Amino acid sequence: MIKRVGFIGLGAMGRPMALNILRGGFGLSVYARRPEAAEPLLKAGAGWCRTPAQLAGETDIFITMITSTADVERVTFGVDGLIEGAKPGSVLVDMSTISPAKTRDIARRLAEKGVEMLDAPVSGGEIGAKEATLSIMVGGDDDTLARVMPVLSCLGKNIVRVGPSGAGQVTKACNQLVLLVAIQALAEAFTFARASGVDLGKLSEALSGGMAGSRILEVLGKRMIERQYQNGIEARLHYKDIQLVLEEAANLGLALPGAALVTQLFNALIGRGKGREDSSQLIEIVEGISFARSG
Amino acid sequence: MIGTIGFIGLGIMGRPMALNLLQGGFPLRVSSRRRERAEPLEAAGAVYCPSPREAAAGSDIIFTMVSDTKDVEEVILGKEGAVHGTRPGSVIVDMSTISPQATVEIEKELARRGIEMLDAPVSGGETGAIGGTLSIMVGGKEETFGRVKPLFDLLGKKIVHIGKSGAGQVAKACNQIIITMGIYGVAEAYILAGKNGLDPAKTREALLGGFAASRILEFHGKRMLDRDFRPGFRARLHQKDLGIVVDSAHKLGLALPGVALGSQLVNALVGGGDGELDCSALIKVLERLNP
B249 contacts in A (CB within 8 Å)? Predict the structure, then answer.
């Protein structure tokens, strides 16, 4: 029986997710690098922990939702890390998007102390986090997932156990690979259409009915047409994810030429200082290869 | 005045380089992770030291020639690293191929302790190391370069001081970009020629007379023709070097699509179990694409 859940990382994704766990009737302990990020949760009844170790000591399940592989390693094994407070039988559910290989390492090291781990990265963005409609891709033991299912059910709808430890992160990497290559394809198609004098609105309408129809076309296509890049998914986060894909490809000895190419275009986008704007802006880079745009 | 020299890292490249310094008449203190690597040098009069720290102690110029960025950090700044034995005013010369950004960081750390550093990666492979005919690309202070130049002359022929700290590593990254794409271009040309029923040897001969003539077409092109993929420059090391290029592009926010594609094919080459072959074996990956 789960009584109290711990949550580490209260950013744009983590905060609404933690709130949904609280609303689901679980006791909640939180920790964040910046204590002010916790305020709305403390008001809603969560307890503050000064360190990850303290948080692990008072909870049965602890969730991490932070930015990078190094962050997850630090929170878990660093000074005052989770491992210093965790009780045998407790579970770390890492919902961050990090390296599959490192995930397996972390799970192995935790297992030595009797602590279980699931990798459970998500797809669905801020909206999905707020509305508790995230897709959750889980790697780890079936039994462990069954134990934490009541908590994950507060966060998402489509919860799939894909395989053993690391499989969730592999799935997320595949998700990002499909997504980013599709963004590039769309940017190229739109550049081609514009150069040929075809109206992009009409083009989208036509494409959406056929095999090329997709969420990317629907959501990012609109932003590309309107050249509105302020809201959406920050390119630097996609960029970080595709780096994980390439790192893993090198480890596995795989050629993923599409992923490598789109990464280079993201390099150019980030290099122009656009990392905090939406990834649909990739179209500006693709256009810029062929046409010098004024201003 | 150069008295004693330290040399850390006695692999395929490091060992013949250290030997050339010894034969130049300089007392030499060597260190290597594996003791047996030092034996031929000890026989020639070098002093074996169990740690980089000890190899650096009493040396005026200390060379490092190891595999990657982490290794350089370890042998210079690690617990038993050279920095702990190096006197202020001495020079550490890193001839490994590593990250330019990391190089600048190491140089800063050494400068705080009054130790000079040059980055001096090489091109020319094992043959160049044995024959003392390497190309050496140097980054660091002009004055420091002047001090070490007599030793560089024992190791290589084409020795260029390119700019400040890190510049040597950037030049080496540029070298790897051109080599990668050169090999890739030759391999694609052979595929096209072969599928059209041309004799690749004749094609190569013809091309060597024109604007496509290059060292790559000459040497790697020959290896591909002869299916002689004995290294040379091993594919797995090439993969490591391309990692440095791709990482630099990432850090600087640059799109370098060609090298990114090339590095994926090298991934596939290494992943196929051919990491110990010469990098000209890249043609095998293109053959798999075009069976």
Answer: 264, 267
Interface residue A188 vs chain B (CB under 8 A): no
CB B76 within 8 A of CB B107: no
Taking the C-alpha atoms of residue B118 and residue B164, their distance in angstroms, rounded to an integer, is 9
- Active-site annotation holds for A172: yes
- Type and span of the H or E element at A150: helix A142-152
DSSP A165-178: TTHHHHHHHHHHHH
Give φ, ψ of A239 to 5 degrees: -60, -45
Query: Residue A92: beta bridge partners?
Result: A62, A117
Query: What mean pLDDT value characterizes chain A?
Result: 94
Judge whether residue B126 has pLDDT over 90.
no
Residues B223-232 as b or e (16 or more Cβ within 10 Å = b): bbbeeebebb
B157, B172, B195, B240: the active-site residue: B172
Residue A86 in this model has a pLDDT that exceeds 50: yes
Both tokens of A68, joined, read 């990078």
Summarize chain B as % helix, strand, coil (round to 5): 55, 15, 30
Closest CB to B253 among A250, A252, A267: A267
**B24 interfacial to chain A (CB closer than 8 Å):** no
Q: What is the pTM of this model?
A: 0.82
pLDDT 10s digits, A178-193: 999 999 999 999 999 9
**pLDDT given at position B231:** 87
- The pLDDT of residue A292 is 63
Tell me the angle at which helices A257-271 and A167-195 cross, rounded to the nearest 10 degrees.
70
> What ipTM, to 2 d.p.?
0.72
Whether residue A294 has pLDDT greater than 50: no
Contact A243 B263 (CB under 8 A): no
Chain B residues whose beta carbon lies within 8 Å of the beta carbon of residue A249: 264, 267
**What confidence score (pLDDT) does residue A293 get?**
55
The verdict on a CB contact (< 8 Å) between B250 and A267 is: yes
Q: N- to C-terminal Cα distance for chain B?
A: 60
Rounded alpha-carbon distances, angstroms, from residue A40 to A22, A26, A96, B85, B106: 12, 16, 21, 54, 44
